[in-house]
Amino acid sequence: MSNQNGSNQKGADQAGSFQPDTVLDASGLHCPLPLLKTKQALAVLAAGELLEVRSTDAGSWRDMASFTDQSTHTLEGREQRGDVYIYWIRKAQDARL
């Protein structure tokens, strides 16, 4: 499958392979709030912990990828389930936001 910009997205069965330490529901929030809330949630996690983010903002697909590319955090996976975008982000050892 591919998303709106042609990138591959993970299948729905991927969710079972992740055990998040924290789940952030950013549904209903518009840009830039899902990314801002993600940064705030990562700030309180310990290094190596996994954050699951749920968003209904289509722009978050690009925003989360750009954020993790420019930070030391890792985007472990992402998928789209209907109108909900789900991301799994692992907090870096060097937690530079």
Your description of this structure?
Helices cover 24% and strands 26% of the residues. It has 2 helices and 4 strands, in the order E-H-E-H-E-E. It has helices at 33-44, 60-70; strands at residues 22-25, 50-55, 74-81, 84-90. Strands 1-2-4-3 form a 4-stranded mixed beta sheet, covered by helices on one side. It has a single domain, classed as 2-Layer Sandwich (Translation Initiation Factor IF3), CATH 3.30.110.40. With 97 residues, it is of the alpha+beta class. The radius of gyration is 12 Å and the shape is globular. Strand 1, helix 1 (33-44) and strand 2 form a beta-alpha-beta unit.
SSE inventory with pairings:
Blueprint: E1 22-25, H1 33-44, E2 50-55, H2 60-70, E3 74-81, E4 84-90
Parallel strand pairs: 1-2
Antiparallel strand pairs: 2-4, 3-4
Key features of this structure:
97 residues; alpha+beta; Translation Initiation Factor IF3; four-stranded mixed β-sheet; globular; disordered N terminus
